[in-house]
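Input record, target 12 of the design panel.
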C-alpha cells in the first residue's frame, strides 16, 4: 500500500464496515443507546448517593433496601426482522 495516505485508508475501512456490517448497524446503535442510558442513570445515582454521604446521611439506611435491590427501568422492544438468533438466546 505504498501510494495510500492515512485519510484514504480511513475511507477504505469505513466503506468495508458499511458493506459488511450494514445489517448489524441498527442493532449495534440500539445497544449503544441502551448502554449509554444505563451508564448515565448509574452516574446520576452515584452522584445522589455521594450527596447523601456528604450530608451525613447514608443512602442505604432507612428502608433497609439498597440501590442494587431496586429494578432498573427499561422498555420491551419487539423482535427485529434482521434478528436471526433463536428466541431463547435473547
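The sequence produced for target 12 reads:
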Amino acid at each position: 500500500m505504498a501510494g495510500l495516505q492515512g485519510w484514504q485508508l480511513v475511507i477504505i475501512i469505513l466503506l468495508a464496515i458499511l458493506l459488511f456490517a450494514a445489517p448489524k448497524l441498527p442493532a449495534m446503535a440500539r445497544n449503544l443507546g441502551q448502554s449509554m442510558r444505563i451508564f448515565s442513570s448509574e452516574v446520576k445515582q452515584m452522584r445522589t448517593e455521594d450527596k447523601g454521604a456528604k450530608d451525613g446521611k447514608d443512602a442505604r439506611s432507612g428502608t433497609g433496601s439498597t440501590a442494587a435491590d431496586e429494578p432498573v427501568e427499561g422498555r420491551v422492544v419487539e423482535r427485529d426482522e434482521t434478528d436471526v438468533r433463536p428466541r431463547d438466546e435473547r
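The CA atoms of residues 23 and 81 lie 10 Å apart.
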